[in-house]
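It is worth pausing here to work through a concrete case rather than discussing structure prediction in the abstract. The textbook approach is simple: state the sequence, then state the predicted structure, then interpret. We follow exactly that order.
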Amino acid sequence: MTWTLLYSGFLGSLLHIIGGYDSGITGGVFSSTTFLEKFYPELLTTTTSPTVTPYCKYANDTLNLYTALFYPGVLVGAIASSFTSRWYGRLSSLRCCAVLTIVAAVVQVTAPNRAAILAGRVLLGFGDGFNEHVSAIYLAEIAPAQLRGKFISGTIFFGGFGVFVAQVINYGVRDLGNNWQWALGLVMVPAGILLAGSLFMPESPSALNSLGRREDALRALRRLRGREDVGAELDDISWAAGRAPTLRAAWHAVLTQRRYVPPLVIVLLGVTFNWWSGNSAATFYAPNVFTILGFGHSTALINAVVIGCSKIAGVLMGMLLLDRFKRRSVLFWGCGVMIAAQVTSAILFNQFLADVPGAVATNAQGIGILVTMVVYELAFMGTQNTTVTVFMGEFPPLEIRPVVWVLITLLTATWGTVSTYTFLLMLCAMKWGLYLFSAGVAGLLLLYTIFLVPETSHVPVERLQAVFYTHWLWKRFMPVGDEERGPLAPGDPAADGHRRREGQRRRQQVGVRRGVASIHGRASYTILFAIVFAETGLVIAPFLPGDSLLFATGALAASDKLNIYLLLLTYMAAAVLGDLVSYTAGKYLGAHVQQSRLVKKEHLVKTQHFFAKHGGRAVVLGRFLPIVRTFAPFVAGMSAMPGSAFAYFNVLGAALWTCLCCGGGYVFGNVPLVRNNFSLVMLAIVVLSILPAAYEVLTTRGVRQRKLRLAGPGTLTGQFGVLAICPDAERAQTCTPEEIQEVSARELEDAVQSRAKPLIIDFYATWCGPCVLQSKELVKVAERLGDSVRILKIDTDENPDISNQLQIMGLPTVIIVPTDTSKPALRTEGLLSADKIVSLVTSENGPAAVTTFDAGAKGLY
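Step two, the predicted structure:
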C-alpha cells in the first residue's frame, strides 16, 4: 500500500461523515427546546403532555418531514452526479458535494423560519447525493482487489464515526442557548477538509481511461500502486472500459439485458434490507427512544453516545472480518445475531414499557434495552452494512456502474424518505411489535444470503461477472460465452487465484456429495428433518436425540460432509413445523391423547409443572430440555395459549436452538484437534447425550406413578385424570400430602354420596391445560349429582375483571362448590382479584378457609 493510495482512500471516504453526522444529529436537535420553540412550537405540548402514551410522544408529521426531506435531495444530487462523474471524472462530484454541504450548513444555521430550514435540509441532501453516488465507485476503482473490502468499508467507518461525533456534539452543546445552530453548522468541517485535500488526490484511472486520457490513467495508476509495471492492470481496465456503452445505451442495457439482472437484484435487495432491518431506531432516533423510556435529556444523549461507539466498533470489526472470511459467512452469522437482538428488544419493551400515559422504565431495565441495541449495532455495522456496501461497489460492472448507482441512490432516497418519515409513526401504532417487524426483515436477509449471493472474496473487480457463471440461479441469466475473452480467459494471470478457488470449491462439492452419500445419499437432509420433526411434533417420541444430533451434524458440516446453510434451514423448518403440529394436537385432541398408553403421564406432569412455572416462555426454554421439548407445545395447545403468542415463542425458540446447537457444533468442528480425531469426538458426543437419559431412568425407577407431589402444605393440586381431595374440610389449609386422597372423575359420585361432610372440589389449584379439560369432565359429573354439589356460573357482565382473567389463563368459567356455601351466600366479587385466583374452601358451618394461588396473568403470554 502506498501513501498516495492511503491518502486518497481516506479523503474519498471522509465525506461519508456528512451522511452519518446528519443521521445522528437529528435526534438530538429534535430534543432541543430552543429548536422546537423556534420551528415546531406545537410539539412542545405533545412531548410534555401527561395524556400521551410514551410510544406516541414524538409521532408528529411535520417533525418527521424535517428528517425525511434529506433524501429527495440525495436523489436529485445522485442523478446530477451520474453526469458529472462520467463527463468530468469522479473528483468533480466529490468537490461538488463539499461545496454544496458548506452552503447548506450556512442556510440552516441562519434560517429565520421553518421553510428556510427545510430548504437547507433539502440542499444538504442534494450535496450528499453527489457523494453517495460516486464515493464507493472511486474507492473500488483505485483499490487493489485484496484491499477493496477495507477501502469500501472505510466509507462505512466514517459514516459510523459521523453518527458518533453527532451524538457527542449533541451532548456537548446541550446546555448552550443556540445548541442546535452549533449542531447543524459543524458539518462544514469535513466538507472543507475534502475540498482542500482533493487538490492533491489522483483521479480514478478507470475514469481517466474512459475519457480517453490513457497516459494520465497510467501515471495515476503508477502513483497509486507505487511501481512502474502496471500495464497489465491498465489493459484490463481498458478492456472493460472499451465495452462501456454511451449513457443512453447503459440505461437501456440495465433494463433490457439479462446479464445485468444478477448484480442489479443483489444490490437493490441489499439496499432494501439495510433500511428496514431496524437500524433507524439506533441511528436517527436513539435520544428519542431513550426519552420515550423515561430517561432525562442528558442521560438519553449519553446512551446515544454509547450506541455511536458501538457503530464505530462494529465497522472496525467488519473491516477485520470482511477480507479474512467469506462474505457470505460474515453476513450469515450477522443475521442470526441481529434477529436475536431485535426479538430480545421486543420482549424487553413489552415487559418494561406499558402503553399507558406516564409509563417509564427503571434504570436497570433501560440498561437492558441499551445492551440489546449495542449488540444489534455491532452486528449490523460489522456484517450487514459493511457487506452490502462492498456489494454496491463491486457487483455492478464498469460499463453500467454509474447507472446502477443512480438506481441504488433512487432506492436509498425512497426507502430513506419512507422509513425516516414513518418510524416514529410506526412505533406509535405497532409499539414493541416494530422490533419484531425488523427481526422478520433480518430473517429475509438471511434467506437472501443463502440463496442469492455468490461468494466474491479476493476476486478482481474486472472479473466479478465470472462468479455468476457458477451460481445455481444466476448462471441462467449469463450468456453462453464472452465473445472477446470469455468469463475466465485461459492463461489470464488475474484469474489464477479465482480459478484455484473454483477448483477447490468443486472438489469440496465432490466431497459433499460423497459425504452425504456415505450417510444416506440424497435423502440425508430428509432423514434429519424427519428426526427433529418427530421429536418435537409427535408426543410419543421424546426419546429421539435432538441436541446431540444438531451438534454432531454441525461438526460434520465443518468437515465439508454437509452444507451448513442447508442444515440450519432444515432444522429450523423441522423445529417450527413440529411444534406447530404438537400445539394443534394438544389444542384439539388433548383429552384423547393424554389418555393414550403411548404417552407417559409422568412426562406430561413434568412438563405441566415446568409450563406452570415459566408460562409461555416454557416453549422457548423447553427447546433445550429433553422430554420437556417434546411436550411443551402439546401442553401449550391444551391450555388454550393464543396462537399468535405460541407462533412468536415457537419461531424464537427454534432459531435459538438451531443456531446455538448446530452452529456451536460447526464452530467446534473447525478446531484442528477435532478435525483430526473426528470419529472419537463423535463417539464421545453420543455417549454424553445418553448420560442424561440414563440418569433420569435410574433416579425415577421404583417411584410410584400415582404419588401426589404438592407444591407446599395446604395446596390442593389437580392432576391428570384424578382429583385431589382432603377428607376433612375444616383442616383444608393444613392437609398433608399423606392425607390427600386421589379419586378419578368416575369415582366422584360415590365419594360425594358416601361422605358426611362435603368434599372440597378445587379446579384452580393448577391452571394447566389437562386440568382445564379434566374440570370440564368433572362439571358433567357434577351435573349428574344434582343437589350434592352446586354449580356456580360467573356473571361475566357484572364481573368483567373475572372474565378477563379467565380468558387470559384459559380457565373454564364454572366453579363447583359444596351446597353448604348458600349459608352464608357466596359472593363472587371476592373470589378473584387482578393478580390472584382465590378458591373458597367451605364446610357445613360456612367458609372455612380461603386458598390463594398465583395466577401469573401479567406477562404470562
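Step three, interpretation. The chain has three domains: 3-246+256-453, 520-700, 722-854. Confidence is low (pLDDT under 50) at residues 482-499, 504-522, 699-861.
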